[in-house]
Amino acid sequence: MNGAFHSYPSTESALSARFRGHRDRDWKEWGERHYFEAAAQIPGEATRAWVSRQKLNYRAIADKNALAHLIAANVDQPFLEAIGQLSRLRRLELEWPFLGTDLTPLLALKELEHLSIDSPRKLSDFSRLLELPSLRTLLITNPKRMPNIEWLSGAHHLEVIGIEGAIDSLYKIESFAPLAGLRSLRAVLCVSTRLADKRLSPLAQCPQLEYLSIARCAPRSEFELLRAARPDLVCSWFDPEAWRKPVIRPAG
User: Fold this and answer.
1) What is 179-233 written as a DSSP string?
2) DSSP conformation class of 63
3) Which residues have a Cβ under 8 Å from the Cβ of 115 and sit 6 or more positions away?
4) CA angle, 51 as apex, 47 and 55 as ends, to 5°?
5) Structural domains of the chain in order of their starting residue, each with its CATH number
6) Does the predicted TM-score (pTM) go above 0.90?
7) What domain of life does the UniProt record list for this protein's source (predicted)?
8) What average pLDDT does range 153-171 have in this prediction?
9) For residue 179, with 0-12 CB atoms within 10 Å meaning exposed, 13-18 middle and 19 or more buried, which class applies?
10) Integer Cα distance of 17 and 11 in angstroms
11) Between the chain's N and C termini, which has fewer beta carbons within 10 Å?
């Protein structure tokens, strides 16, 4: 095995943490210092907060104007509308379950750079998110009603795109063709996915792409062709040893 492959586990882990935004994440610290039972408990000067909706415990969130990073769970439409008033927000993580029905309130977040949405069960159209002028990272997990990724074809400002299934449910991507040629794209995150056309060649056309985290959703020959076209790209499936390990596939 090529000696360069020995660095992939640590390199890939570092890149995954970096592009998913977990590089500086300490869950213990978040639990002890930034988690609040109700939005009213968040200090006015706080820049970070983590809140899970229980009845109306989110109601004071719109007054927390210093917030730059918010983790919010069980978000419904009224909670989302309140979040849309946080004009200084740069990072927003909408954790499972996300119950919002209209993403329009987020369009007011002109400084938002990082957005993740987990299990948006009531939404099928995400295209308006591309109107966010500062957005660079967009991660959507388990979007059961999203029909395809065609809406990403003009997302030249995005640096990280993650469209992923859940642990027990694969998301079907028809083709990576909509991502071909995206000028700023540096990372594609697509674990728990199926790829209908089995072609990886569109990704070779993304000039800045440096990291691919993906399910084994294409033939080995496709990964070999991609590696030949983009030897600078980091992907675990470029390692021959990875193909000797059994793959456990979730249902769906």
Assistant:
1) GTT-SS--EEEE-SEEESS---GGGGG-TT--EEEE-S-S-HHHHHHHHHH-TT-
2) G
3) 91, 92, 93, 94, 106, 129, 132, 135, 137, 138, 139
4) 140
5) 3-244 (3.80.10.10)
6) yes
7) Bacteria
8) 95
9) buried
10) 10
11) N
